[in-house]
Amino acid sequence: MEKVISCFRKRPEAAVRLICFPWAGGGSLHYSRWGNLLSPSTEVLAVRLPGREGRAREPFLENMQQVVEEVLEVLLPLLRDKPFALFGHSFGAFASFAFAHALKKHHDLEPVHLFVSGALAPYSKLRLNAPRRSQLSDQDFLRWLTSVGGTPPELLENPEVLKLFLPALKADLHIVENYRCEEPDRPLLSCSVSCFDGKEDVPHDLPAWRNITSGEFSIRMFEGSHFYLKDPENQKILLDLITKHLETAEMDYL
């Protein structure tokens, strides 16, 4: 499991697990650190996909089904013994939803809470009609990446680092651009869903996520752009909100 899942702070007595899916091109490090920041009642499991970090030599996954199946294979045995929640930002929002959908459809399991951040609903027309960024030339791709914000300038100006970073980012974007999900006629989930985003990010039509669940639904906007959650003040607020929701879910679960 350690190859696919990173857990900096193991908490076997934790009441709930928070499973975090990376943004496009991202690894597990950012979320793994949350294990030191959240309360002892929460154990953080950060997903590590092929082609990055300790899995840099492995080929990238090609579609969302492969992402879901790989994570499901290692985590399914753990998901029946205690409640769990899912968090995903950008690419991770689609991956966490696809994971939740597969769990419900094939295993009759649901998270107690789904947190999605910085992403359109998977069936949004805005998403389906969006430009295919993964097919841009490196020059145009970097120009777009700079406009999104959140990527350190020193990273964008370092050719050696970019050689490592761009392939993973483009591979993940390719997965997102080819991921399709029909708008449901009825809610696919019954858990609570929270949407987060930066106020200066491109519009993501967050209310469209409402249709995936019959449970409670909320939206919270933060100061900042696409990577608002990297800001320390925003991160503190975000983790406080997650903690509050998980504590409520734990009480309902009991």
What structural keywords apply?
254 residues, alpha/beta, Rossmann fold, 7-stranded mixed sheet, 8 helices, 7 strands, 37% helix, 15% strand
In short:
The chain is α/β, with parallel strands linked by helices and 254 residues long.
Description:
The chain is an alpha/beta fold. It has a single domain, classed as Alpha/Beta hydrolase fold, catalytic domain (Rossmann fold), CATH 3.40.50.1820. Helices cover 37% and strands 15% of the residues. It has a seven-stranded mixed β-sheet with strand order 1-3-2-4-5-6-7, sandwiched between helices. Helix 1 (29-32) links the parallel strand 2 (16-21) and strand 3 (42-47). Helix 2 (64-75) crosses helix 3 (91-107). The longest helix has 22 residues, at 232-253. The chain starts with a strand and ends with a helix. The mean pLDDT is 90. Residues 17-244 form the Thioesterase domain. Belongs to the thioesterase family. This is S-acyl fatty acid synthase thioesterase, medium chain. It is an enzyme of class 3 (hydrolase).
Give the SSE map.
Blueprint: E1 5-6, E2 16-21, H1 29-32, E3 42-47, H2 64-75, E4 84-89, H3 91-107, E5 113-117, H4 125-128, H5 138-148, H6 153-156, H7 159-177, E6 192-198, E7 217-222, H8 232-253
Parallel strand pairs: 2-3, 2-4, 4-5, 5-6, 6-7
Antiparallel strand pairs: 1-3
Helix pairs in contact: 2-3
Enzyme class: hydrolase
Family: Belongs to the thioesterase family.
InterPro entries: AB_hydrolase_fold (IPR029058), TEII (IPR012223), Thioesterase (IPR001031)
Structural class: alpha/beta
Strand order of the largest sheet: 1-3-2-4-5-6-7
Share in helix: 25-40%
- Tally of structural domains: 1
- Classified in CATH, the superfamily is Alpha/Beta hydrolase fold, catalytic domain
Mean pLDDT: 90
**Percent range for β-strand residues:** 5-15%
Order of helices and strands: EEHEHEHEHHHHEEH
The level-1 CATH class: Alpha Beta
Number of helices: 8
Question: What is CATH's topology name?
Answer: Rossmann fold
User: How would a crystallographer describe the biggest sheet?
Assistant: 7 strands, mixed
Shape, principal axes of CA atoms: globular
Q: Give the beta-strand count.
A: 7
C-alpha Rg (nearest Å): 17 Å
Pfam family, one: Thioesterase
GO molecular function, one term: fatty acyl-[ACP] hydrolase activity
Domain Thioesterase: 17-244
EC number: 3.1.2.14
